[in-house]
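The data layer described in this paper is built around a simple, fixed record for each protein. Such a record has a labelled line for the sequence and another for the backbone structure tokens. For reference, a complete record is included directly beneath this paragraph.
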Amino acid sequence: MVKIQAYSVVDLRRMLNRGPWFAGDPVPITRERALAQVNNPRAEDSDVVLFVAYDGDVVVAHLGIVPDLAFGGATERKIGWLTAWWANSDRKYSGAGMLLLMRAMALYKNGIGASGFSEDARKIYAATRKFTTIKELPGISAFTRFDAARMLPKRFPILVPVKSALKVCDSVANRFVGLRQALWKSKYRIPSDVRIEIATEMDAEAGHFVSQHNQNELARRGARELNWIGKYSWMTCVPPHEAPPFRFATTAGSCRSHHVKIRAAGGELVAVVMLTVIDEHLIIPSCHHDGQEELVAKVICHQVVRQKVKRITTYRGDLVAEFLRMRFPWVWSSKKTRSWILSGPGVAGESIYSVQDGDGDCAFTV
């Protein structure tokens, strides 16, 4: 018989401090994700952040929830973003995953949201007839350097023995890429009177700037929330074979976040951008500016070149348009689409609000 256990913030904190941790295959949550959950500035100790379905001691389904706030004009309400939803494919456990979803929706009566989900999950959400699409945005995912040594063996394991040869090929090809990018930089220079400040934590000035520019956003994440995202990564930098048996991305060779302040002539702050790089894949969880999309796009591209980032993904229409207009020399690019959906009362009126790339749980993974 399947039993469902709910875990609150305080439950996870107790387990992190005193143990024991989850055992078995799979585990329903990693320590890194749990640490982020217990430090979420918008979560309360009593908030349920994880549902687990057990058959005896065996985990047969799990569903995570990231507590957040949704804003509608001058009002705000507590919602939860779904994350790490998994169910055992065995027929005797059919319906276990849906049962967890129903429990989550019953608990978070003001709304449950989802973003960056799979097509299979989309069909399930549609079948419930409880969700409204807040935003569906076109975007781009582009490779900025060759990365065959990492990408090809992952997709075709038969190529693992020739990984060293692929690294050599990448190195040679990326010399030409570097030359193309250098020529691009010389054409699209950042004006000499523009100042760029980079920090691992958003300061009070940047936080004030963001709060002045996020009033039309659904989540209105400010300095506290963005610093939390930057500090508590869901990734751990351990070899893949040492990763816990979790059904979602857990490891990365590198993971870093920083906040970029851009000042125009005279020192006026005109943009604040959060950049996160996971395994040399850059995402833009948050971006606010005073009509400076061209300058922001230039700064991001210059950072891509300087840090030798291998890939970039964004759903910011203003930045995508500038990347295309300036013809940044991608190795290869493809169009993407990302949706944000939400259940609960008063959702229809919230479709007028904007979202950031990182809203939902999208700031933590690529």
Remarks:
- DSSP finds ten helices and twelve strands in the chain.
